[in-house]
Each structure stands twice: as structure tokens, then as C-alpha cells.
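Data card: per-record layout.
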Amino acid sequence: MFQFLQPIWLLALAGIAIPVVIHLWNQRPGKILKVGSVSLVTENLQRYQNRIQLSEILLLILRCLLISFIALALTGPEWRSSGGSHAKGWVLMDRKGISNTYQHFKSSIDSLLLAGYEFHFFEEGFKKEKLEQALADTSADSLPDASYRSIIATLDQQVDAALPLYVFTNQYLRNFAGERTEVLLNLHWRMYIPDSIVSSSTADTAALHITIFTQHYATDAHYLAAALEAIRQFSKKNITVKQVKNIGEMPDRQDWLFWLEDTMPLNLSHAINIVSYAGGRPREGASAILPADGSLFAAVSVNKLIIEKDGIDDVQDVRWQDGFGHPVLTAQKQSQQTLYKLYTHINPAWSELPWSDNFPVILYTLIYPRDAPAVFGDKTNRTLIDPAQAMPLLQASKDDKAKSVSYTVTQLTGVCWIIAFILFFAERSLSFFYSKSKANG
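The structure for this 441-residue chain is written out next.
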């Protein structure tokens, strides 16, 4: 059956009306012939009119077909046929960085291919290819990052549930955007940590002590601790995090204290840097958390914000702000301490910080402002994802949703362009022939 990757281009078929209109508009009017009596031409008048309307009809058809095939080529047509593959299974790898992936899993991949497995690209269409040719193509390294979760969802629609699938990819978080989907696949996913992550993430001997204090926002503390743990694992820095509920349990000489309460004692001196919630009634409204001090991180949605002032003009040191210029995080230097005030909460009811992949990045830019540009300053986000979180949700049983066939996809875009070129050449040749015939009478 036919499928179109960009069906919106089918609207271009309306362009067929253009050659039809031009054809009717350019019909030559009959020549005026002076005769003594119209009785000599009346009986042939209807036949003459019909001959004019049918002239150059082949040229009109060619022009309509030309526009039709150009529109079809733009839609990205493909033909999906069921069955056709007798392989024991598939080996799938992302086209981008395929050489690195192969080097990490060389023995496993070679064993599967020798056992009768087919190699396919881990992308929409799942093109079958010889591994030697895929490895020789170096132009794929400049391709944009793939969305593995959307590819898995497409794979679930096209492949037999019983067909063994071995997917080999890296562990970059940027490739796992979107929600985890439930699929019915015989899936075996192998991930690796790229060498650039291993070599750059050296151990940090300087210890950083962080305390999280809360009595009323245990959920917020849980999300914050998870983000700090992600930073520790990614950066390989010596970070210790302690959660307390009573002031008497709070350790001294902490580097950072996250005071997740609406009010804070005036003489709190347990840490060098203290981050506390701002007190007050929040305002609801859709906006985003943006850097305001030259930091580098992507925007995160926020829908509840405590607003003390209409703008940031009266605030000296604003680290984060929203899209309307309201402060989200401010800093104030007092003696040997830096006091930070957070005007939202680390809670899904307030903002997307707890669920955002950028939350560890945002915290990293706050805690390690000097190291952040070197780690996140380029366009490549090297944050890793836990393989357990990356895996899709697999159905335990093959119920009535089970698929009994797989699909072989044949791309037809190139065929449509070739036909369009042939039609263009034929249309130009025929148009030249007609114009030459008219000139010769």
C-alpha cells in the first residue's frame, strides 16, 4: 500500500488547473472570412468548433501529468509490502556515529550477521543495507540527532512482534526526547557510553557538601536530590548530598544549602551558598525559565511564580528570569555568604523543572558556573540517560494487538522525479513541434 511522508504536498495537485486554464485561454479565435452567403459554412460550423477544443490535448495531458508527479515526489511516497524477509532477525544502528557504535559492539554485531541477521538503519524506513557500505559512508556524521522513541514507535507498527530486533545505540539523552511508548516487539537494546564522555568525566577530588532541608515539601526535595545525583554521576565530581527535616540535624560548613521552605531564619550560617523559596502568593500564568546572567541552558516551562516586583530593574543580581522579565532566581552577597531566592518551586504543579531533562544542566550552571561553559557551551548536549529509562515499555503478552506481518518499505521519491523529468522533456518537445507546425501553417 502507498504511504506519504509529507501528505500536505498533495494540495499541490490543485496546480493541475493552471495548464487547463492556460490551454483554454490560448485557444485561437477563428479567422473572419467574408463570404456572400453564410449558408456555405453553417453546416460545418459545429464540427470546426469541436476541432479547436480538442487541439493540443496531448500537450495538456503531459502538462497535467508533470504537475502531478512533481506533487507526488514532494510528498515522499513509499510502497509498503507485507512479508518478503526471511531473516532470522534484524540488527539496527543509527546512521549517525555508526562507526563508533560498531567498534563498541563489534563482536556481537558480527556474530549476529553471521547467524543470518539482516542489517537495517535505525531510522524511518529501516532501509536494508550492507554493513560494509554503511561504515564507509562518512557523510552521515553531519546528520541531525535522531529521535529514538519515535523510531521505536514506527518500528512497532511495521515489524512482526516475533522478529528478534537487536538495536545498538549510544546513551545520549538528547536522542530520547518524548514519552516512553508501549510496544509489542522482541526487542534487545544495547547502549554504550561514548568515549568522549568517559575521557572528559574525570574524577574530582574536591568534595562538595550539599544539604537539603524541608519540612513541608518532601516531594520537592526528592526531585532536587535526583537532579543532584544525576550531576554527580555525569560529572564524576565528589558530591555528597544530605536531606534533613530538623535544624538540629543540619551539619555545619556546607557548601550549598537548599532551604525548601517559605520562610528562613535570619541568622542561618550553616552554608556558604543558601537557596531558599520566596514567600508570598503565587501568580498563575504560562511562561518559561530563562538564563539572565549569561548562563547556557534551554528554557523550561513555568506556570506558577511569586512576583514581588514588576521587573528586574530594582534587583541587582538576577540569575534566572521568566519570559516577561520577572525574577525567578536572584542572588545577594552578604558577608561570607551568598543568598539565593527562588520565586518558583521544584514541583510539577509550579514548573516543569522536576520533569525537564535540562534541570540537571540548570543546577550545574548554578553550582559550577565556571565549568558549565566547557561542558554545555557547545551545541552538543552530552548528558546521558539511564538505560532503564531509555527502554520502551514492552507488552508482556501477545494479545489481539499482536502483529503477524512485517513491512518492506520501497522509497518511490526518486522514481517520481525521474518520471517528472521525462514528462518535462516530452512536453517541451511536443510544444516545440506544435509551435513549428503553426508557424508553417
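Known properties of this structure: Confidence is low (pLDDT under 50) at residues 50-54, 197-203. The two ends are 49 Å apart (CA to CA).

See the next section for split statistics.
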